[in-house]
Amino acid sequence: MLRHRRVLAASLIGTAVEFYDFYIYATAASLVFGPLFFPASSPSAQLMAAYGSLALAFFARPLGAAVFGHYGDRIGRKATLVTSLMLMGGCTLAIGFLPTYQSIGWWAPLILCVLRFGQGLGLGGEWGGAALLAVENAPPGWRARFGMFPQLGAPVGFIAANGLFLILGMFLTDEDFFAWGWRLPFLGSAVLVFLGLWVRLKLTETPEFAAAQAEAPPPALPLATLLSQHLGAAVAGTFAVVACFAVYYIATAFALGYGTTTIKIDREVFLAIQLGAILFMGVSIVIAGWWADKTSPTRVLVAGCIGTVFMGIIFGPAIGTGELLPIFLILSLALFLMGFVYGPLGAYLPHLFPVQLRYTGASFSFNLGGIIGGALAPIVATWLIQVQGVGLVGLYMSIAAAISLVGLWFTSRQPA
């Protein structure tokens, strides 16, 4: 059906653009932002400072979820998604023009952190709306498979981001890359944002939201209603998403920084390894969507979390070998499991909340879980290496998966 194809394309393309914007920052933070924007006594201290700016967006995301969720539940999904995309794209483009510390001193890291905060606000309103756009248009029995399309935006955005950095590294000298080449992915975001806006502006409101609006007026303050009447579901949903953030940011941002800084693997080689590994995530998201429709999203998420607990135990020793094959295999396994703890969330989280609170509820839970699982992941992992060595890094993912299992247990009696 043409309408379904247009909805799925809009949810995939828009989310891919937003995640591209988010991931080029993570890649740049791992590769260049430390020495360019954060003067410090050592490369590891610079990397920690860059990861600190990366974490800022995770604290902005719940605020973005509250703001955009408010208007998404009161006005509609379409207008809110367009606004979030414009905010995210504007902040990303501005980073591409930002002078470095050598040019304007401490203004550089300050402005960088403000723009990173703006990225977080935009992405905080993106995921929940894109998931609702897909699942509220899904035919009966297809919610998880429709809900997997915005999830596929994550690997697509990652491939575009890291692929572009890889190409730049192949054709530019290190001096040119550090001087101006790193800016090109940020400047190129403007073209992708225009594409996302063009697709989304052609959409109509979802049938479920339109029906709910016709039946009763929306809550005056959706977040207040959520916290007063559905707090248990919101807390459990927050816990349920912790694992996906921990796995992703350990296997991508942390691994890239550690691989290129500590064990001195060539930047282009490590980016190529991650691009190969991310393909396993794309495959597992598709498998997870099909499996979740055949069973339930909760069951698939539980299976992924159990696998992640055991994977985390061997992750650190595999990375610590410093050998390309073990590193590729463990990153591939981690990101394959990521598909099972992330892919079904598009169907799982919205179903915890009534239609008129879904944008707020799904967005708030997803992004609050990002603080626990994602914001601190590269920072804690880097700190663990300094005090205990790389062997314990994977335990962060194991603990995060155990937290998600607790959240899933509390919502296991919810209809799937």
From TrEMBL:
SUPFAM superfamilies: MFS general substrate transporter. GO terms for molecular function: transmembrane transporter activity. It is a multi-pass membrane protein. The keyword Electron transport does not apply. Keywords: Cell membrane, Membrane, Transmembrane, Transmembrane helix, Transport. The chain crosses the membrane at residues 7-28, 48-68, 80-98, 152-171, 177-199, 231-251, 271-292, 299-319, 325-349, 361-385, 391-410. It comes from the Bacteria. Its main location: membrane. It holds the Pfam family Sugar_tr. It is found in: Cell membrane. Residues 7-416 form the Major facilitator superfamily (MFS) profile domain. GO terms for cellular component: plasma membrane. This is MFS family permease. It comes from Sphingobium vermicomposti. The lineage of its organism: Bacteria, Pseudomonadati, Pseudomonadota, Alphaproteobacteria, Sphingomonadales.
